[in-house]
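Quality-control log, excerpt.
Job 1 of 2 completed; input and output follow.
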Amino acid sequence: MNLVLITLTAPDGVITATEIDAQMLTDILWANVVAGDRIEHISVQAGMCQNSYTAALFLLPACPGRHVSGKALAETAARVCRTAIATSPTLNGWTASADLVGLLSGD
């Protein structure tokens, strides 16, 4: 299983307890996953800054005999996050920090 971490950041002053929480953000991300993404699990927790969350996306390993690079896995996770931002009015103005994407691999 492969883990990709992405920081999602709201515009200043957007996040309040009644507007969005980790579970709502998790649901929005799941709504933007397609079967080919090979995402097995998504977990979202409050980030280090008041207006951010850290999304952990767990991706299934490649099919036997087929290697998928860490870069491709990170791009898949980032695409799901960018699509969620682009299609959800709740996430209007949010960003997915590609420079904060990390990858842990365990085959």
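Job 2 of 2 completed; input and output follow.
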Amino acid sequence: MIHNIREAFNELLEDTEWMDDVTRAVAKEKANSMNERIGYPEFLTNPVELSKEYDMLEVWEVERPLQYSKSLQVPLSSGSFQ
């Protein structure tokens, strides 16, 4: 998919009239040198590494989530958005 986008971009560069040849060449070189980094990080497929990412996360059960969420609300002072 990224390859197709890059190809289409390079084709558009050829038809662009407002760029001079030097600028067009630099734009094409930059487009062709871009890394294709779409997807997800490798640690997501490794259970040990994934656990390390969440070591500091503390999860606890709350009996009454609504009451808990109300305790987190901050009262608005005068002049604040309401």
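Post-run check on job 2. The longest helix spans residues 2-15.
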